[in-house]
Amino acid sequence: MLRRFALEQDVARRVERLQALMDEKGLGAVFIPAHGAPGMMGMAKYFTNLVLWAGPAYVVVGARHPEPALIQWSAYGAMWNRQEATTSWVENPDPDAFGRAVEIAKELAGDRKRIGVEHVSTSWLVGEWERIHRLLPGYEFVDITRELDAMRSIKSHFEIEEIYRTGRILTEGMLAFAEVARPGVRVWDAAAAAEEVLKAQGCFWGRSKLSLDLRPYTIPTPLDRTFREDDIFIFELVYTGPLGYWYEQTALFSFKDLPPEIQAQVEAHEKVIEAAARAARPGVPIGKIAEITNKTWEELGFPVEGKHTPDCHSIGLDESDGPSSWFTPDWPLEANMVLSFHPSTRLKGDRAFLISDNYLVTAEGAVRLSPKEWTYKKIEI
Fold it and tell me: Could you count the other beta carbons within 10 Å of the beta carbon of residue 66?
């Protein structure tokens, strides 16, 4: 009960901040599409706590209305959202949910005739973008993507606590995986033991992945692949927690002692993580983290070939919900940003470990948001 109350209060504060932004920009409404796929619903969820499995939904926020409107295509989805969403304004028009959402946007916009939109190139269907212009001639559509990403990338105390809770759950999943993984055991059975821990505690969207070749590219294995005694492997859990916050956690495992050259790479990787985390302070451009990881590897004597993924990116109700060291390197970090932190330098021979966890940006540097304090674990057999 108290957690639900805290969620409702936190979402209400987000809506208030959005309405203040709308007044600043002269917007009468904001129109947010959502689709049932990871990375396609986080913005809508941020302002409503919507849940979505399939089919589209639309969130419309008015500058003066106390609650967002949530328009759901699916009758089943609408029933689910009447249970889970923080807004009581949930509609299920048949069959034209988009058309009804546009009607609401027009009503809420009033005389302003300016409507805020976000992530047009990734969140909007081409047909919907063309249709809203046809239905609302004379209206101006204002892109507020940067402002909304800046807003949601800085986490409230409620969100930070929820993300740490998810980190604890994933750590428990990692330990469950290590209890089952043994030579001769199917990889999928060990992964299922980890995911059972997550599902039992309310984690919803997500997947487990592995790399079995000392390269960073984690993918699901064939169903019949079993562990071998000489395997050295990365296991990754990428999941949303009970309230939809994404968490990426990865670790290296083996059944035997690591060969000296691999042990040296692990120890260097831990030093790289420490150097990058110390640097992740407010005011530092997020792209600086990528520069520091490469420089540290080179100082430790490891030739650098490039990157295999961003070194870090903001993470929340979408897997990437703001600045990224790859896509927006000049974006300065701010206190209470949460980063998916995975220094991603690719070494000579396409060698690299994808070691990841979520970190909180503080004045002293980034700190881990899970109780997992290890990078590598030898599984005793």
Answer: 12
Per-residue pLDDT, 101: 98
- Domain coverage including residue 61: 2-153
Query: Which residue ranges in the chain fall short of pLDDT 70?
Result: 1
β-strand partners of 31 = 60
Contact 314, 279 (CB under 8 A): no
Rounded CA separation 334/324 (Å): 13
Domain boundary among 153, 183, 212: 153
pTM over 0.85: yes
Q: Are residues 304 and 167 in the same domain?
A: yes
Residues 6, 124 within the same domain: yes
As beta bridge partners, residue 285 has: 332
- Last-in-domain residue among 132, 153, 174: 153
Residue 147, helix vs strand vs coil: helix
Number of domains in the chain: 2
Phi, psi of 305 (to 5 degrees): -110, -25
Q: What is the CATH number of the domain that holds 130?
A: 3.40.350.10
Instruction: Dump pLDDT digits (tens) for 242-259.
Output: 999 999 999 999 999 999
Residue 85, φ and ψ in degrees, nearest 5: -70, 155
Residues 105 and 177 in one domain: no
Inter-axis angle of helices 126-135 and 97-109, nearest 10: 50
Burial of 103 (0-12, 13-18, 19+ CB in 10 A): middle
Whole-angstrom CA distances from 185 to 189, 190, 191, 289 are 7, 7, 11, 38
In order of 29, 186, 291, the CA distances from 15 in angstroms are 12, 47, 37
Query: What beta strand segments (E) does the chain contain?
Result: 29-34, 57-62, 69-72, 90-91, 114-117, 140-143, 206-211, 232-240, 246-254, 304-307, 312-314, 338-341, 345-347, 357-362, 365-368, 376-378
